[in-house]
Design brief:
Elements (H helix, E strand, L loop, with lengths): L3 E2 L2 H21 L5 E7 L3 H17 L2 E7 L5 H13 L5 E4 L9 H5 L13 H10 L10 H12 L8 E5 L6 H9 L6 E5 L7 H5 L3 E4 L17 E4 L2 E4 L2 E4 L11 E3 L5 H19 L2
Parallel strand pairs: 1-11, 2-3, 2-4, 5-6, 5-7, 7-8, 8-11
Antiparallel strand pairs: 9-10
Helix pairs in contact: 1-9, 6-7, 6-9
Amino acid sequence: MVAQTIDGKAVASEIKSEIAAEVAELKKQGLIPGLGTLLVGDDPGSKSYVAGKHRDCAEVGIESIRVELPDSASEADIASAISELNGADEVSGFIVQLPLPKAVDTNKLLELIDPEKDADGLHPVNLGRLVLSGSTDLNSPLPCTPSGILELCKRYGIETRGSRVAIIGRGITVGRPLSLMMSGRGVDATVEVIHSASGDTADLLSRADIVVAAAGSPHMISAEDIKPGAAVFDVGITRTDDGLVGDVHPNVFEAAGFVSPNPGGVGPMTRVMLLRNVLQLAKTGS
C-alpha cells in the first residue's frame, strides 16, 4: 500500500477561486471584505507570514490593511492599534501576529479584539460559542488550522462520522479546538487527545482511523505506529539543521491510506481558511 497524498496546495487553490468569485459578487453590491494585520517588531518569520497573508488577499480581491509597530511598542501602543482596527469600517476581520514582545501581556491584548472581527477564530468568545454549540455550524469564525483539516477530510472523502481520531498535541491553535470540532454534531468522530502525560500511546494510535500530529516533535510518528489505511495529517513542524521537519516520518506513506505532508498539506489550508473567515465576517457584518 502507498498512501494517497493529500494536496493542500491544490485544494487551497480551488477554495481561493471560490472565494474570489464570492468576493466579486459582494463588490457588485458595494461590499468590500478587508483583512487587517497588526505586526509588532521585525521578526523575519512573522514578517514573511504577514506578507503571505497580503499576497493571498490580493489573489482573491480582498483588501488588506497593514499596521506595523516597532519592537519597542508598549502595551498601551498595541492596545491602541487593536482599538483602531476594531473600529475601522474597511476591516472585516484582523489578526494580531504572534509572538508579541515579551514585556507585554499577550492574552490580555488578544482579548481586546472585537470577537466580530476575530479573523483567526481564537478569541475566547468565539471558542466559547464553539463549545456551547457542539457544532461547527456557526456564523462566528472557526479556528483556521482545524477548519482546514476538516475541509481536507471532506474533499478527499475521508469519513469522520463514527471514526476514531487521535490528536497529538493540545495547543490552542490546533489540538484543543480540533478536538471540539471533530467530536461536534455533523462531524461525529470519537476523539482522543494525546499529550505529554498520556503515557504509552501505541494502543491509541493503532486504533485511530485519523491521526493528527501537532506536537512539534520531528518524525515522532512512524509507519509502525499507525493503523493500516489510516488518514494522517502532519501539522507540527520543527526547524532543524537539515531544514524544516514535520512530526510524521516519510515511511508512514507505506502504511497509511492518506497522508497530508508537511509542508504542502495543512499549511496552505490554514491560510485560505483565514480568507474564508474574512469573507464570512464581511457578510455577517454588512
